[in-house]
Design a protein that fits this description.
The protein is of the alpha+beta class and 329 residues long. The chain folds into 2 domains: 171 residues, 2-Layer Sandwich (Fructose-1,6-Bisphosphatase, Chain A, domain 1); 144 residues, D-Maltodextrin-Binding Protein, domain 2 (3-Layer(aba) Sandwich), CATH 3.40.190.90. The strands form 2 sheets. Strands 1, 2, 3, 4, 11, 12, 13 and 14 form an 8-stranded mixed sheet that branches. Helix 6 links the parallel strand 6 and strand 7. Helix 2 runs antiparallel to helix 3 and helix 5 crosses helix 6. The longest helix is centred in the N-terminal third of the chain and has 16 residues. The protein is globular, with a radius of gyration of 19 Å. The two termini are 36 Å apart.
């Protein structure tokens, strides 16, 4: 396949096909909302995403997935998927069938189905370990905030760039015991907090629209796979992000070693995590500040999605009425 043909195919595959994948995945997950069974919800969502990806005319490799090959039956890191021919479109896949499995199981806000698709070799391959993340929205000078700076220093820099006092900033942080010192530091600096139980992909995306979401900056440690997916979204919308991989125990260090990672001091800029063009899609499972959740009607299913493209900075918000509900069975 020539470079021009590959680009044409990539353009097509990076369009609305991927949002159909997240729609079907979100519908499968929605049938387990509020039932308290995280494993069943995740299994149903992963099976649906695998089924839909297998239909796409791609040669896909899961770079960010559900875990290692021996940990999950589908969408594991390194798995190949797609219906493309041997010389067809080669792509990287970053998947999260349910971003916020606990949110789905408890019917809490902001559970999403998320997928990023990029040219082969474009996405940072990370194991299922942690990542320390720092993100702000678009419109600021490069390098305004930095993981090596203190929370107070970053908040002061951001407040200065916005032309507001630190007291008018709101920081989004996962509500975890590991963040107790970070939370104390943010409060001591004078900023407000938005603590979230899960869903740090949505948390990072929220920094791109502070007037709508009320969130100015994201800080803290969450999943490394979610970090790459969040960076993919920012590459499409705009913004800045840094990440540093974190392994807090021997098991996570072993995973990192198996993946060839030994330097836990390295800072990954967004450009290190995302290289080249990509598309990002997300569909709401439960209602949230970013997307509405799936509505299951007698004769139709309703979904709310966003699909974005990095090279064109295109963002499409899509509300779909699915009257052929049998396709989700």
């Amino acid at each position: 396949m020539s470079e021009a043909q590959a680009k044409t195919e990539l353009d097509r595959a990076l369009a609305l096909d991927i949002v159909r994948v997240t729609e079907a995945t979100a519908v499968a997950a929605s049938r387990w909302r509020g039932r308290g069974d995280e494993a069943a919800a995740d299994q149903a969502a992963a099976a649906a995403m695998y089924r839909e990806l297998a239909r796409l005319p791609i040669q896909g490799v899961v770079v960010v997935g559900e875990g290692e090959e021996n940990e999950t039956p589908a969408l594991y890191i390194g798995e190949t998927i797609g219906a493309g021919s041997a010389d067809g479109l080669a792509v990287d896949l970053a998947v999260d069938p349910i971003e916020g499995t606990t949110l789905c199981a408890k019917a809490l806000p902001n559970a999403l189905s998320v997928l990023a698709l990029a040219a082969r070799g474009s996405l940072l391959k990370v194991p299922a370990i942690y990542m320390d993340k720092l993100a702000i929205g678009p419109g600021y000078p490069d390098g305004l905030v930095d993981l090596d700076a203190s929370p107070a220093e970053n908040l002061k820099a951001l407040a200065g760039a916005k032309g507001v006092p630190v007291s008018e900033l709101t920081v989004c942080i996962l509500d975890r015991p590991r963040h107790s010192k970070l939370i104390d530091a943010v409060r001591a600096a004078g900023a407000a907090l938005r603590l979230i139980g899960d869903g740090d992909i949505a948390g990072v995306i929220h920094v791109t629209e502070p007037l709508e979401t009320g969130i100015d900056i994201y800080m803290g440690i969450g999943g490394a796979p979610e970090g790459v997916l969040a960076a993919a979204a920012l590459a499409c919308i705009g913004g800045q992000m840094q990440g540093r991989l974190v392994a807090t125990n021997d098991e996570l260090r072993s995973r990192a070693t198996a993946a060839g990672i030994s330097d836990f001091t390295r800072k990954y800029a967004m450009q290190d995590m995302i290289r080249g063009d990509l598309s990002f899609a997300a569909t709401g499972i439960t209602d949230g500040s970013l997307l509405e959740g799936v509505r299951l009607g007698k004769d139709a299913v309703f979904t709310h999605s966003v699909v974005m493209r990095a090279s064109t900075r295109t963002v499409r918000w899509i509300r779909t009425e699915h009257t052929d509900i049998g396709k989700f069975d």
